[in-house]
Amino acid sequence: MLVLGVESSCDECSFAVVQDGRRIISHVIGTQIEAHKPYDGVVPEIASRKHVEMIVPVYRQCMDIAKSEGIEIEDIDGIGVTTHPGLSGSLVVGLTFAKSLAATLELPLVGVNHILAHLYAPQLVDEIEYPYLGLLVSGGHSMIVRAESYDEISVMGASIDDACGEAFDKVAKHYGLGYPGGKVIDDLARKGNPSAFDFPFSNLYKGGHEYDVSYSGLKNAAINQLDIFWDGKSEKSIENICASFERVAIDSLLKKLDKAVHDSGVTRVVAGGGVAANSYLRQSLMARSGLQVSFPPLELCTDNAAMIAGIAYHYLSDGKESPLSIGVMPRVAGFRRI
Ligand code: KG4
Ligand code: ZN
Question: What's the gap between Cα 20 and its chain centre?
Fold first, then answer.
């Protein structure tokens, strides 16, 4: 079965053709980073207008690549599209395009939860047996989940305030390091002393928060309270601030992940989302003994249409189509604790 995937939940406009939920035939990710850079973050209004401009060219580019592999639009058997969660204006552009194609070509359509798709992404590279734990860390989500199958997950923990990537971006913005901040902090941290500042760990254990994290205290410490947490001898350099911030941001997540592994007995771990590119996170996870860790390649960690087409294959094979009246859902209950 050949599925066309459409993803426009945030600032990536992406199309893919995937065969049988695994073989990527064509995959194009159009990024909007340059348009959002002057604002040090994604501006929802600009994101949706950019999607309007990009959607047809990116679709055409994807189908041109498919054509070079001998596949035309008439060969497509179904369409998968992100309907939730994400920025509503951005989601609407991708969904409307997907619906128009489905209606015109009389193809089945399925609306996909792109968080489930992130957890499916490693299956495009390797067949990973369920159940597994997912560490999903991006600019919008920080979650520890347990995946039982492609569409069955339980959220074990989440950030109670900022997402992990959001904290990286806000600290980077404060120090004028540019957007997106995660990569810049990662690079600077490699040259710094991670113990120069003893920034605070979030310590949420009580009241059902066993696997939750919080980034507001750490962010505030790294921005406003350097003197309080300084070791008194290291240089107060940007490299040392970044290395110390990164250590606590990542270790607080991994501490909760270790607990989730211990309590669930599940030792297969899949990492996804933009922060899964972080070198300290990757090293620390790979160094843990007794875990089978899977990091999909970066283009499958961040928002992309291949994972949407991949998971949509399973829905469509199971006869789970969506009606053409389906709408978007910017937020999904339970995916972000309030
Ligand atoms: O998954 P993603 O591309 O988009 C969504 O937010 O859905 O993730 C983007 C986030 C940004 O916050 C960015 O700063 C962060 O991932 N990021 C990183 C690194 N590369 C990207 N954070 C830490 N270290 C990195 N190397
Ligand atoms: Zn995403």
Answer: 23
The residue assigned the tokens 């204006």 is 89
Q: Which atom of ligand 1 is nearest to the CA of 277?
A: 26
User: How much is the pTM?
Assistant: 0.91
Please give the Cα distance from 197 to 242 (Å, whole number).
10
Distance CA 279, CA 267 (A): 21
Q: Which atom of ligand 1 is nearest to the CA of 139?
A: 6
pLDDT at 298: 86
Bridge-partner residues for 111, per DSSP?
81
Rounded distance from Cα 188 to ligand 2 centre (Å) = 25
**Per-residue model confidence (pLDDT) at position 333:** 64
Spacing, Cα 276 to ligand 1 middle (Å): 8
Decide: 272 in ligand 1 pocket, CB within 6 A: no
pLDDT along the chain (338 residues), means of 10: 97 97 98 89 93 98 98 98 94 98 98 93 93 93 94 92 94 92 96 97 77 95 96 97 98 96 96 93 94 91 95 98 94 55
- Compute the half-sphere exposure of residue 171: CA atoms within 13 Å on the CB side of its CA: 35
Atom of ligand 1 nearest to the CA of 280: 24
pLDDT for position 336: 47
Q: Are 238 and 262 in contact (CB under 8 A)?
A: no
Check if the beta carbon of residue 191 is closer than 8 Å to that of residue 239: yes
Give the closest residue (by CA) to ligand 1 atom 6.
Answer: 139
Residue nearest (by alpha carbon) to ligand 1 atom 16:
274
DSSP-derived 3-state class of residue 210: coil
Our answer on whether the CB atom of 180 is closer than 6 Å to any ligand 1 atom is yes
Query: Is there a cis peptide before residue 44, judged by omega within 30 degrees of 0?
Result: no
pLDDT of residue 207: 66
How far, in Å, is the centroid of ligand 1 from the Cα of 186? 11
- Alpha carbon of 273 to ligand 1 centroid (Å): 7
Show the tokens assigned to 66: 């498919």
Nearest to 176 by CA among 40, 338, 31: 40
Residue 257 near residue 269 (C-beta atoms within 8 A): yes
